[in-house]
Automatic annotation (TrEMBL):
<feature type="domain" description="PKAT KLD">
    <location>
        <begin position="71"/>
        <end position="121"/>
    </location>
</feature>
<dbReference type="GO" id="GO:0005886">
    <property type="term" value="C:plasma membrane"/>
</dbReference>
<dbReference type="InterPro" id="IPR046846">
    <property type="entry name" value="PKAT_KLD"/>
</dbReference>
<dbReference type="Pfam" id="PF20433">
    <property type="entry name" value="PKAT_KLD"/>
</dbReference>
<feature type="compositionally biased region" description="Low complexity">
    <location>
        <begin position="1"/>
        <end position="15"/>
    </location>
</feature>
<feature type="region of interest" description="Disordered">
    <location>
        <begin position="1"/>
        <end position="23"/>
    </location>
</feature>
<dbReference type="GO" id="GO:0007155">
    <property type="term" value="P:cell adhesion"/>
</dbReference>
<protein>
    <submittedName>
        <fullName>QNR71 protein</fullName>
    </submittedName>
</protein>
<dbReference type="GO" id="GO:0005178">
    <property type="term" value="F:integrin binding"/>
</dbReference>
<dbReference type="InterPro" id="IPR045219">
    <property type="entry name" value="PKAT"/>
</dbReference>
Length: 147
């Protein structure tokens, strides 16, 4: 081991010893390190506050459209991903990600298409450069209607 230096500097000292298996020698390394931490707020919470089925014309009847109204707390997101899974939320059926622009208030509407009637698990993830937050819901799509 090395003796502490008599420097009046209060910076933390890093000291490491490594064994050299060939000759039993030791390597001593002394020095100082510094670090800084930036605290960012991030996206704290996401809520799906409304799910609305969109009425389509007969020519568009093959896909049921649903609007999801989503709010969030914390920093403003820059992208949204929607994962549609089976009702147990175990088997993913599709995933769509889009960049978004949210200005003053985190309130957005996300429209997604469902190819066939059924019950689905929806995961909506809002993200930015430093964080992500997720909200989940079960939705029943009945050929143009959702509950």
């Amino acid at each position: 081991t090395a003796e502490p230096s008599s420097d009046s500097d209060s910076s933390p000292t890093v000291e490491s010893v490594e064994d050299n298996p060939d000759g039993g020698c030791h390597i001593y390394r002394n020095g100082y390190y510094g670090s800084s931490i930036d605290v960012v707020e991030g996206i704290l919470e996401v809520n799906i506050i409304q799910m609305t089925s969109i009425q389509t014309t007969e020519s568009q009847a093959e896909n049921s459209l649903v609007d999801f109204v989503v709010t969030c707390q914390g920093s403003l997101p820059t992208d949204v991903c929607t994962v549609v899974s089976d009702p147990t939320c175990q088997v993913s059926k599709s995933m769509v990600c889009d960049p978004i622009v949210v200005t003053d208030e985190c309130l957005l509407t996300i429209r997604r298409a469902f190819e066939e009637p059924g019950t689905y698990c929806i995961n909506i993830t809002l993200g930015d450069d430093t964080s992500q937050a997720l909200a989940s819901a079960l939705i029943s799509v009945n050929g143009g209607e959702s509950t």
